Amino acid sequence: MTANRRQVIKTMGALPIAAAVPAAGMLSASAAEATAAPHAGALGGRDLFAEVGIEPLINARGTMTYLSGNLMLPEVVDAIRATSHEFVNMYELQDAVGAKLAELLDCEAAMVTAGAASALAIGTAAVLTGTDEEKIKALPFLPGPRREVVIQKSHRYVFDQNVRMAGVDFVEVEGPREMERAINDKTVMGLFFNAASSWYGTPDSVSREQFVEIAKRHKIPTFIDAAADVPPMERLFEYQRMGFDLVTFSGGKIIRGPQSAGILLGRRDLIEAAKLNFSPYEAPIGRTMKVNKEEIFGMYAAIKSYLERDHDREWDDWVDRTERIARAVRRVPTVEAEMVVPPGPANEFPGLEVTWDQDTVQISPDEVIERLRDGRPRIEVAGGGDTLGIAVVTLRADQVQIVARRVHRMLADAARG
């Protein structure tokens, strides 16, 4: 992916006017799938959403877990269906799929986890226990002093609880010197939250390269949480080549695997220890994070598909979606719409920001969000304050025009009022 694709584009008018959606024949099988609009929840004539009394929604907010992440690729669904009719030895399956993933991702070893949060827990457990059965049984209450994990102060985040649940304390540092001083005989690992700068807008006080170099010199393993950090695809390879001992990615975001799955990759000895702390073993802390055979096969299919995807064409399709929505809403006086690409490393893909003069268009972004959520069909968008945020990467192709029409109509009605 070229560098200019990752820049924030401030003037949508400067973008080339693309056709509505590239012809299905020009897309990969996965992209072409997006042009289809199957009956939601249909199964042999049954609408399962209606049957349980819940209404599906259009997700124009992003790959949020509470909105069920992203839609699985057709090949992922096919893998789930194709493997649901047979039994398998789960130890053998995890080993076999892990070997295939390691080959695809050019790393020592890999495994499928119950999402990136699960990988944080069992990866930390692996560092604490190795292959020692007594330690595995003892977690999170290992005998002796509490073990410590070094983390930058600006990297503390909600998901670090998944590390602490293995039975460790965090030691917060700022800068390379503090990191050096913080490492002692109780230190078992260094944790790097890769999206911290994206989340908080604060530069890392210790760069990734410095973090790895200091930890290696002190012979402690490093773990990087890169859950939402593709695209670009190269990040699947970058961090383990940089020297991180453990790396995790979410499976249910842009990779479009099962939302309840992720991958953990890295040093062979640590991956083997992580497996011992995971299901199908019956006693370890990871037993509660079970993944079934269908999710493991689905994650394998998703990674394989993601590596084979035409990423430039996919990016162009995302840009086209922002253009179409922007053209629609700009027809309302004072409304401005610009495509933005977050600087990364997390969620580095195009989205749309919409603003307007609220004296002319007499509705606030918060009111738009609420009315879209309460309308039919239900639409979830982001934003608040002075800005409406519209994600396009989670939309089906047939939903782009629905979102454009609904937002335009709402703003136009407020302008006439």
Automatic annotation (TrEMBL):
Residues 1-31 form the signal peptide. Keywords: Aminotransferase, Pyridoxal phosphate, Signal, Transferase. The keyword Cell wall biogenesis/degradation does not apply. Pfam families: SelA. It comes from the Bacteria. InterPro entries: PyrdxlP-dep_Trfase, PyrdxlP-dep_Trfase_major, SelA-like, TAT_signal. One of its GO terms (molecular function) is transaminase activity. The modification N6-(pyridoxal phosphate)lysine is found at residue 253. PROSITE patterns: TAT. Its cofactor is pyridoxal 5'-phosphate. Belongs to the SelA family. This is Aminotransferase class V-fold PLP-dependent enzyme. It comes from Solicola gregarius.
